[in-house]
Amino acid sequence: MLRPVILAGGSGTRLWPLSREHFPKQFLPLLGGATMFQQAALRLRAAEAPLIVCNEEHRHLVAEQLSAVGVAAAALILEPAGRNTAPALTLAALWSEERGEDAVLVAMPADHHIADGGEFAGAVAEGHALAREGWLVTFGVRPTGPATGYGYIRAGAAGPSPGGRALVMDAFAEKPSEEVARGYLAAGGYLWNSGIFAVGAGEWMRRIERHRPDIAAACRAAHGAGSVDGEFFRPGGDEFRACPSDSIDYAVAERDAGAEGRPAAVVPMDAGWSDVGTWSAVRDRIAADGGGNAVRGDVITHDVEGSTLIAEGRLVAGVGLRDLLVVETADAVLVAGKDRDQDVRELVAELRSAGRDEQLEPRRVHRPWGTYEVIERGPGFQVKHLTVRPGASLSLQRHRHRSEHWVVVRGTAAVVRGEERYGLAENESTYVPRGVRHRLSNPGDVPLEIVEVQTGDYLGEDDIERFEDDYRRA
User: Fold this and answer.
1) What is the gyration radius of the CA atoms in the chain, in angstroms?
2) Which residues pair with 456 in a beta bridge?
3) 198 touches 105 (CB < 8 A)
4) I need a surface site. Which of 5, 62, 421, 423 has the fewest CB within 10 A?
């Protein structure tokens, strides 16, 4: 049995302003129509239904994106806090172990791009066979240049299976300087570390218990305290938050590379892999124009060379630019030297330190019931555009600091206001005073669109006191 495990907890801070903490890059259609998470979910369709390990806050977004591409997950394991990939894989192994599965788990980050699905499937098939024999298998990418943004794997000469492409895994190497990376390429035998692993569920538990018994114990406690809610599995929150944070590489793979009695292998592949970790990686996958520019969206250029210009909503016009990166969104514009995209992470850290909302969420915010977008705000007021999915409802709630005016611009609304229950059609409106319990629902079969005007002395999203909620939010 081959069970894909999609690790969807990344943040993608180097792709700001498109990628945000609450809406990270794996849920964006950066390369093609489907999001990278959806591409990962579709990657091994011939295998068993995937296990998804994701942040609790993203659970409904994950379920919605899976439904959109027709993928039914075996379960969505919801991490109450990010603890890196080793605990995530351990939760998946415990889920499999509890069900008595004799499964090989293929752990794949949700935010990677693989252009050649056939090559990838062939590599996974070989890795699956080795994992069935007790090997820990990783997948190495044959380097196309002296990349400094990837870790490397040093492969041995002797393959564990005659006639196969797999090699014994000798050692891991950290992200190198360019000089060191050139040395790796000259020496041969070095592969980029893709961060994709295949290992039997029981074998993973034996290895994590040997190398990181603290992680294994914390995850066992969290799994034991967990609860099932439909397709969601919620590990115990306090127990999982007590788990140390570590990656599969550091916790286990590096310790077993080259070790006797704990076989570890690497399967080389040429599958057009990229972790899409920087704007340079995105640029490399956008067809260049005559000036060597990568452009996407509503972009006009004159005398522009070697630049990346991405427009999400407005016209971006460039004149006389050389080697720049420009990314436009509804609430932020990034302008940088194209060779400084690794430093975007530091910029996001400064936004976080300054308490800026722009690092958290985009202008359009996804919620389990639909989306909202802030149209305008000023002292004492805020205007939002809400879109509520058919059959969905906001929570029964009240606000202590604001009142709300709702105007229906499309669809029909069902309203609870105090003891009242009534409907609203297009071009009708209602008023909800502060302190009054209220709820908005869409009983129709088309999206409900509302213009909401908030007034009050405080308009933050934390001024919500929930009494009932279909989505089990606090």
Assistant:
1) 25
2) 402
3) yes
4) 421
Q: For residue 242, what are its two tokens? A: 């007590």
Rounded Cα distance between 181 and 196, Å, is 21
Q: Does residue 233 contact residue 51 with C-beta atoms inside 8 Å?
A: no
Quick check: helix, strand or coil at residue 449? strand
> What's residue 363's pLDDT?
87
Is 266 exposed, middle or buried (CB count within 10 Å of its CB: 0-12, 13-18, 19+)? buried
Segments in the chain below pLDDT 70: 157-163, 260-261
Residue bearing tokens 């040093």: 154
Tokens of 350: 């400064």
Please choose, from the candidates 79, 82, 8, the residue with its C-alpha nearest in 3D space to the C-alpha of residue 246.
82
Residue entry with tokens 């018994």? 213
The single residue listed with the structure tokens 């509890």 is: 98
Residue 434 has a pLDDT of 96
412 in Cβ contact with 448 (< 8 Å): yes
Whether the predicted model's global pTM rises above the 0.85 cut: yes
Which residue matches tokens 């205007």? 383
Q: Of 431, 387, 381, give the one whose Cα is nearest residue 409.
A: 387
CA 173 – CA 181 distance, rounded (Å): 10
Counting Cα atoms < 13 Å in the Cβ hemisphere of 383 gives 6
The confidence score (pLDDT) of residue 57 equals 86
pLDDT of residue 163: 64
Closest CA to 89 of 4, 202, 5, 145: 5
